[in-house]
Design a protein that fits this description.
This protein is mainly β. It has strands spanning 17-21, 26-35, 42-48, 53-58, 63-69, 72-74, 77-79, 84-87, 93-97, 103-109, 116-117. It contains no helices and eleven strands. Strand 2 (26-35) and strand 3 form a beta hairpin.
Length: 132
């Protein structure tokens, strides 16, 4: 997948990758769709299991979540299918699925992704490869 070539991905037939999150002690799930080799920008599908909320954290990138299924619960409200929720770079946030069911979002970053949990030292931070 390079930025100058056409490609298409059949996400319905792409398996979910479980990604263990040490802070949560459980798996979140993703389907990687695209990573720009120059900017680090990413596009992926992400699925949070019912009732799982990723606690307060920041990112060194802005990112958007377009809700496809379920209810996305955030520190600013709850959003259903068809909503695009944008989190600016550096904002302290939390987000995940409502207790009623899983949430599936199209997750887009504007540059390389990393998650920094609030109140954790740098040694406890998770590199991008071990998250969503």
């Amino acid at each position: 997948m390079t930025p100058n070539e056409f490609y298409a991905i059949d996400t319905a037939n792409t398996p979910w990758e479980p990604r263990f999150n040490e802070k949560l002690g459980l798996n979140l799930f993703r389907k990687m769709l695209y990573t720009d080799p120059d900017s680090g920008m990413e596009i992926r599908l992400v699925r949070y299991p019912a009732g799982v909320i990723n606690p307060l954290h920041t990112h060194p990138c802005g990112h958007g979540m377009y809700v496809l299924e379920g209810q996305l619960v955030t520190h600013k409200g709850t959003f259903g299918p068809g909503h695009l929720v944008w989190f600016p770079e550096g904002e302290t946030m939390e987000h995940g699925a409502s207790a009623a069911g899983d949430v599936v979002v199209l997750f887009i970053t504007n540059k390389a992704f990393r998650m920094d949990y609030v109140g954790c030292d740098k040694a406890a931070q998770q590199p991008s490869a071990h998250q969503l």
